[in-house]
Amino acid sequence: MSIMSKSSTTSAASPAIIARGLRKLFKHKDIGDTVAVDKLDLNVPRGICFGLLGPNGAGKTTTLRMLLGTMPPSSGSLEILGLTMPDDERRVRAKLGIVPQADNLDPDLSVIQNLRVYASFFGLPRQNLEAHLEQLLAFANLSDRRDHQVESLSGGMKRRLTLARALINTPELVVLDEPTTGLDPQARHTLWNRLEELKAQGTTLLLTTHYMDEAERLCDELVVMDHGRVLDQGSPQALIARHVEPWVIEIRHAAHAAERYTCLNHAGKLEQHGSSLFLYTPDRHHALAQIEALAPTLGALPILLQRPAGLEDVFLRLTGRDLREGA
Ligand SMILES: Nc1ncnc2c1ncn2[C@@H]1O[C@H](COP(=O)(O)OP(=O)(O)O)[C@@H](O)[C@H]1O
Ligand SMILES: [Mg+2]
């Protein structure tokens, strides 16, 4: 079922987002100025899911705020859906859907009432409105909750209602700030599924996330940012290929005897994290053989976990491994 009527006509149009030299400076009297976003260039084509990734304080939310027009940039230029910000802000807003990080639904109203109130903000014509709302409910798997109070919904249901609400104006671009933070695995999968369907219908998605599996699964392209700057940009596969060796072998509980493993540096890159050693390698069979060859010197073979390298490895390599406050 398609709930998007406009999207098919937009794919050949201007990019969803063009940012040039976008900069945001926060002035502080006491501690000096913070450059939250530093000369950011973005070019987001239509019809894809674009991800903004970065550790806490990287500048993701500030970037989103500037894109949404809720915070003026200190400098730089911004075009959204072929319109210029902030001059065309009202027209841009009419084409945007927003899923904020914290659900700001009205808890005292029912599911359908929340949608109706939001529809009235957009001044949507009454004709066919109820049918449109029912379609949105069905899309969000909430038809059977139609008349329930929002208060009684689970976290996943609230997120899906927030998404349904964001789709009320049939937006060309939907911006989602950490859409699945705090959801259980099942609720995350259901939401991913809805986002994949939206994308299949031609809607452009822009999301921030802390979850690498989410970014890897949903995003066609993403930027990894830190300290307000883009560290790299590309598809998840391209970023993985560019920054890390294809395989990771985790050697559990081996960090205390790390010196016994240093010869593995010939088979890949050996790194220590917590109590484990991680061997990043282009040839896992060779690397495993090397580890097995060490067995006589180790007493017993350590526990080994092997997996393909992923976006998390890229993220850690690009942004450093120190844990940030609040991360
Ligand atoms: N309203 C504000 N006033 C002052 N500093 C801010 C404000 N908002 C964000 N910052 C600072 O800008 C930087 C980027 O923050 P933010 O965009 O929230 O990062 P992220 O969303 O990636 O965690 C941080 O150093 C943060 O402290
Ligand atoms: Mg943030």
Give the helix/strand layout:
Layout: E1 17-26, E2 34-44, E3 49-53, H1 60-68, E4 75-80, E5 83-85, H2 89-94, E6 96-99, H3 111-121, H4 129-139, H5 155-166, E7 173-177, H6 185-200, E8 204-209, H7 212-218, E9 221-226, E10 229-234, H8 236-243, E11 247-251, E12 269-273, E13 276-281, H9 284-293, H10 295-298, E14 304-308, H11 311-319
Parallel strand pairs: 3-8, 3-9, 6-7, 7-8
Antiparallel strand pairs: 1-2, 1-4, 4-5, 9-10, 11-13, 11-14, 12-13
Helix pairs in contact: 3-4, 5-6, 8-11
The structure holds adenosine-5'-diphosphate and magnesium ion (MG).
Polypeptide structure, described:
With 327 residues, this protein is an alpha/beta fold. It folds into two domains: 13-241, 3-Layer(aba) Sandwich (Rossmann fold); 245-319, Alpha-Beta Plaits, CATH 3.30.70. It has eleven helices and 14 strands. The strands form three sheets. It has a six-stranded mixed β-sheet, sandwiched between helices. Strands 2-1-4-5 form a four-stranded antiparallel β-sheet. Strands 12-13-11-14 form a four-stranded antiparallel β-sheet, with helices on one face. 36% of the residues are buried. The structure holds adenosine-5'-diphosphate and magnesium ion.
